[in-house]
Amino acid sequence: MKIKNLAILFSGNGSNLENLYLHLHNKIFDGMKINIPLALSSRRDAYGIKRCEYLNLKCEILSSKDYKDKSVEEYDARLIEILQSYNIDLVVLAGFMRILSDRFCQTFCALNIHPSILPLFKGSNAIIESYQSDMKIAGVSVHFVSKELDSGILVEQDIIHKIEGESLESFEARIHSLEYKIYPKAILKVLSKCKI
Ligand code: GRF
Hints:
The protein is α/β, with parallel strands linked by helices. The chain has helices at about 15-25, 50-55, 70-85, 100-105, 125-130, 170-195; strands at about 1-10, 30, 30-40, 60, 90-95, 110-115, 135-145, 155-160.
């Protein structure tokens, strides 16, 4: 049976990481087994590290702070080395707060999830900007990672309808629920259709 090794990269809360691990790790889809041997955090204080502990998921830490006087390329060289040592086929970004270098993008096939209907509301304030916009819908996008922020070919998108008078917290919770639904779906689509 074909086995695909996935690594999940994160920097914060890690709720997508947990959802992906529970839905995909050690599961068989279309005769293909998904294995998630590794998570990696760019922050030592990320809550996702605790999630890895209770999920029993190996978590490496490659702290951005340790590379603050070094280049993106130097950070990524180490990142690539770690991922290659686990034979990773697909890299999954889930709240990983770094821009990746050209070299990284050429070495790995990687996906990212973004909490807006791209190309609208790129960047780290996507949820509030889309909440405050006068659009009647909001949504979530999964795309291939390219060296430009929140760009790259789209794999999956889905939307929610705004509810009049809804609080930001409730809106945000609905966006996250949508993320938990579409990210596993997008990953399976890429694994089955791409030559990874
Ligand atoms: C998500 O909203 C994701 O779309 C964005 O970063 C957030 C990560 O949340 N890229 P979590 O750490 O998975 O809870």
